[in-house]
Design goal:
Blueprint lengths: L2 E4 L5 H9 L4 E6 L9 H8 L7 E6 L4 H10 L3 E4 L5 H7 L7 E7 L2 H10 L5 E6 L34 E3 L8 H8 L3 E4 L4 E3 L2 E2 L1 H12 L1
Parallel strand pairs: 1-2, 1-8, 2-3, 3-4, 4-5, 5-6, 6-7, 7-8
Antiparallel strand pairs: 9-10
Helix pairs in contact: 2-3
C-alpha cells in the first residue's frame, strides 16, 4: 500500500483523524503567509496526540536554523523545506541533534524535475509538487505549497527519479488512486485536497482520502 502524509494540520480533531486513518506522516506548517501557519508552541500542543512511529514533519518556507531549532525543540522530528536551498545548505541545516530533511520542489516541465532531483542533495525524500505561479489573480505572491494546483503526472511516467520521492500537488479523494496507479510514488501528500475551506481541514475528507489510497 502506498503511504500517505496529511499536511497542514492545526486542530486536535484533524490530528486525531490523520492518526486514526493510518497516515505515516503528519505535516505542520510554519510559514506566516499560509492559512495553515502555526507557531512552534501551538504545534507542541498537538504533537502529544501523535503516537511514536509516525513522522512529525515541520513544513518550512526556508530551512532557517533558528526556526528549525525551535520546531525540533517543540517535538517535530523532520524538516520539509519549500525554499531555494542548495544541496550544500540542505546538508548543513539538519540541526543538532541531526534530523532528516525532506526537499519539496515544484515542477511543470521535465527540466524542472531534473533540476529538483539535482537540488535535493542529501534530502531523505524529494517531494514533487505543482509549480506555483509567481502571483495570484489578485497580484499576491502564491505560497510555495498548498495552493491546490495539480501536478502533471504525465511528466513522471517512464521517468526514473533515482531516489526516494513522493507526490503532491492537487491530490484529493477523487484523484489520488489515479495518481498512484499512474506513477507509483513512494508516498502521496495532501493538504488543500482535504479541506472544507482554505486552511480548515475536514475530518470526513481525511477519511475519504485514506480510503481512496487504500482502495
Amino acid at each position: 500500500m502506498t503511504r500517505f502524509k496529511i499536511c497542514g494540520l492545526s486542530t486536535p480533531e484533524t490530528v486525531d483523524a490523520a492518526v486514526s486513518v493510518g497516515a505515516f506522516a503528519l505535516g505542520f506548517v510554519f510559514f506566516p503567509r499560509s492559512p495553515r501557519h502555526l507557531s512552534p508552541e501551538q504545534a507542541a500542543g498537538l504533537l502529544g496526540r501523535v503516537p511514536e512511529g509516525r513522522r512529525r514533519v515541520a513544513v518550512l518556507g526556508d530551512a532557517e536554523e533558528a526556526l528549525s531549532d525551535r520546531v525540533l525543540a517543540a517535538g517535530l522530528d523532520t524538516l520539509q523545506s519549500h525554499g531555494a536551498e542548495t544541496p550544500e545548505r540542505i546538508a548543513a541545516v539538519a540541526p543538532r541533534p541531526r534530523r532528516p530533511v525532506w526537499r519539496a520542489a515544484g515542477g511543470a516541465t521535465q527540466a524542472d524535475i531534473r533540476a529538483a532531483v539535482a537540488a535535493a542533495g542529501p534530502a531523505e525524500w524529494l517531494l514533487l509538487d505543482a509549480k506555483a505561479p509567481r502571483e495570484t489573480a489578485s497580484g499576491e505572491a502564491t505560497l510555495p505549497g498548498g495552493n491546490g494546483l495539480a501536478f502533471d503526472w504525465r511528466l513522471l511516467q517512464g521517468t526514473n527519479i533515482g531516489r526516494p520521492w513522493g507526490l503532491g500537488g492537487g491530490l484529493a479523494p477523487g484523484n489520488v488512486a489515479e495518481a498512484i496507479a499512474a506513477v507509483q510514488p513512494g508516498f502521496v501528500d495532501v493538504s488543500s485536497g482535504v479541506e472544507s475551506r482554505s486552511g480548515v481541514k475536514s475530518v470526513e475528507k481525511i477519511k475519504a482520502f485514506a480510503a481512496a489510497v487504500m482502495a
